[in-house]
User: What shape does this take?
Amino acid sequence: MEPMELGASVAFLIVAGTLALVSGLIMLLTPRAFESFCRYCDRVVFTLDDKLQEYKYSSGIVMIMVAVWLFFMGLRYPRSASLLHPLWIIVLIFGSLYLFFPSWLTWLSGVANRNVLPVDRYVLGVCRLAGIILVLLSVYVFCGAHVLLRAF
Assistant: This one.
């Protein structure tokens, strides 16, 4: 492993471990603060449907143009085709929805806005356990970074 790759790998591990440690300590020591943070993050900032209502047709045209461009990039660069082909198909489908079936898009948006699995309730129910798991994972990640530094 080159020194540049080693430094980037260790930096990634240290950042991931620090995030896991801080999140775990917050969940372990102050579950009410974590709950209030979750409630703050769950609020609706804006609805995209209202903002895009007047731009649906132009958005559809732009998405279809991007899909065509991604298709030709996938043909030109076969090594990245496995990533680009599913992407241009998804962009083409949504561009077609914006352009030809805007009522379906509104219906899909309503279906997607439903909370199928309330994760916050489950996580808050086992907040201390999740905090312990995150702290243990952060220790494991820090040990991995230490072993990686000592090996090279």
Remarks:
- Helices lie at 3-29, 31-41, 48-52, 56-76, 81-100, 102-112, 119-125, 127-151.
- The two ends are 8 Å apart (CA to CA).
- The chain has a mean pLDDT of 85.
- DSSP finds eight helices and no strands in the chain.
